[in-house]
């Protein structure tokens, strides 16, 4: 017998058998529950989608209580230890780790599309010298849709592959130029001898030396951070990507919207907010007073808590280990002591323990980025480079989903039912 959920409507005494699949009922099946035949039918009310699955997905698995994160079935710890970002991007988008010929082709295609059109550079030059790099990043990604109008043909797999490659390849170039623009430095052309992440460092930091060679420890650390940020199932920005994509918008416009969602301090802007918070706290002895102020409702402990993880974020564990490797090269970030003391106190404090608030991916990433020379305003942009792979993977999956329709939530209307227009003099 098929699994069903029996619902009794006390208003009418009627019973309904609602099919259950994957521990889930379809919200549309509730519509048959009516008091009168003319009723619209029952809806579910779920602000912020706390308990609503918006799609079926085979990309990322999270068990928030157990602290498990897997991409396409592979544990994040293994991917971070053995994989490279571009390999993992391929895995997310195409479903399997690439064999050597596929990886070679993927690498080659990516390196051919790293450059930005000269007009895109001119477009970026129009931003004020102090423009936030994330604002530059998301606007420029949106502007790419005007450079590649064939991207509108979302049903053509050849075009989709081309736009996918362009987005993954150009995201670091846009990010690097956003940074150099704010620093008043000239654009650096890519070096195809370097890895994806090595070339990004080249485009960021090259000065007058004829050839830039990144430090291998820092290059690897940044690559690992890209892997850790690459996907996280139906979070705020990915949902934005899918929502916009559901209207058949081109991938550049959809990704610009996803990047805008990532910009917020509760999402990808959190690592920037963590660094500002640690800087404001200043020294480890100030931590207890700060924790008290958070408990008294004066702000949040940034980098703590997660909608899905109710235990230690598995990405935070990998990042903490990576931080030690980076500090061996760059010297210890003095704010690390503040962070460690915050973590120690918070993990013992009843307020945080009872609410299951643990460090998330962003708690330590900002310290690494700062030690590597990044300004905090670049932190969300670095997140966006990694997440570009996940956004595209989720968009691809959406386009192949036979249940796809334009996203259009319902509402519970609570306003005035009807009123007559009142002229200005009578209000
Ligand atoms: N500091 C202090 N209290 C907190 C925090 C925090 N960071 N996070 C949650 N709480 C409290 C909150 O005040 C509430 O308490 P009460 O029940 O007394 O009202 C309770 O914990 C539940 O909070 P919530 O806002 O209902 O939880 P949520 O699942 O809606 O929010 C969150 C998740 C990530 C937005 C939130 O934990 C937060 O604001 N964290 C700080 C920002 C941050 O680090 N964001 C990065 C998330 S990881 C990167 C990413 O994937 O984007």
Describe this structure in words.
There is one protein chain. The chain has helices spanning 76-82, 85-94, 100-112, 118-125, 133-147, 157-182, 196-205, 216-229, 236-245, 251-263, 270-281, 287-295, 314-330, 335-348, 350-354, 362-371, 379-399; strands at residues 4-9, 14-19, 60-63, 68-71, 74-75. The protein is mainly alpha-helical. Strand 4 and strand 5 form a beta hairpin. Helix 8 crosses helix 17 (379-399) and helix 9 packs across helix 17. The mean pLDDT is 95. The structure holds carboxymethyl coenzyme *A. The site of carboxymethyl coenzyme *A (CMC) has 20 residues, from loops.
Mean pLDDT: 95
Percent of residues in beta strands?
Answer: 5-15%
* Succession of helices and strands: EEEEEHHHHHHHHHHHHHHHHH
Our count of helices gives 17
The count of DSSP E runs of length 2 or more, i.e. the number of strands, is: 5
Using the CA coordinates, give the radius of gyration: 24 Å
Fraction in helix: 40-55%
Structural class: mainly alpha
Largest sheet data: 3 strands, antiparallel
Terminal residue distance: 63 Å
Bound molecules: carboxymethyl coenzyme *A
Low-confidence stretches: none
- Oligomer state equals single chain
If strands are numbered along the chain, what order do they take across the biggest sheet?
Answer: 3-4-5
Q: What coarse outline follows from CA principal-axis ratios? A: globular
């Amino acid at each position: 017998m098929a699994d069903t959920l029996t619902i009794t409507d006390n208003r009418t005494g009627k019973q309904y058998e609602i099919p259950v699949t994957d521990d889930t009922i379809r919200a549309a099946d509730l519509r048959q529950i009516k008091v009168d035949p003319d009723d619209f039918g029952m809806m579910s009310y779920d602000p912020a989608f706390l308990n609503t699955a918006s799609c079926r997905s085979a990309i990322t698995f999270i068990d928030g209580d157990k602290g498990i994160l897997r991409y396409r079935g592979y544990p994040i710890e293994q991917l971070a230890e053995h994989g490279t970002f571009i390999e993992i991007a391929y895995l997310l988008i195409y479903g399997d780790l690439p064999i050597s010929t596929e990886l070679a082709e993927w690498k080659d295609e990516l390196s051919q599309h790293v450059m930005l059109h000269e007009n895109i550079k001119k477009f970026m030059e129009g931003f004020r010298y102090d423009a936030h790099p994330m604002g530059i990043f998301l606007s420029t990604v949106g502007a790419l849709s005007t450079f590649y109008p064939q991207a509108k043909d979302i049903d053509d797999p050849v075009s989709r592959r081309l736009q996918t490659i362009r987005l993954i390849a150009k995201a670091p170039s846009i990010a690097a130029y956003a940074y150099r623009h704010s620093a008043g430095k000239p654009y650096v052309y890519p070096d195809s001898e370097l890895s994806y992440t090595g070339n990004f460092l080249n485009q960021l930091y090259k000065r007058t030396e004829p050839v830039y060679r990144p430090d291998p420890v820092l290059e690897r650390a940044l690559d690992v951070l890209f892997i850790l940020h690459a996907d996280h199932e139906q979070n705020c920005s990915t949902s934005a990507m899918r929502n916009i994509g559901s209207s058949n918008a081109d991938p550049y416009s959809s990704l610009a919207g996803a990047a805008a969602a990532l910009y917020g301090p509760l999402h990808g802007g959190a690592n920037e907010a963590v660094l500002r918070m640690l800087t404001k706290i200043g020294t480890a002895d100030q931590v207890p007073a700060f924790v008290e102020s958070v408990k008294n409702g004066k702000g949040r402990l940034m980098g703590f808590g997660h909608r899905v993880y109710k235990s230690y974020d598995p990405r935070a564990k990998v990042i903490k280990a990576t931080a030690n490797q980076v500090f061996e090269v760059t010297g210890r970030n003095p704010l690390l002591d503040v962070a460690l003391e915050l973590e120690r106190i918070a993990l013992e404090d009843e307020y945080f323990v009872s609410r299951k608030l643990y460090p998330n991916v962003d708690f330590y990433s900002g310290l690494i980025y700062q030690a590597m020379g990044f300004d905090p305003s670049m932190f969300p942009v670095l997140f966006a480079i990694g997440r570009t792979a996940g956004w595209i993977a989720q968009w691809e999956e959406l386009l192949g989903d036979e249940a796809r329709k334009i996203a259009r939530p319902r509402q519970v209307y609570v306003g005035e039912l009807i009123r007559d227009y009142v002229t200005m003099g009578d209000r």
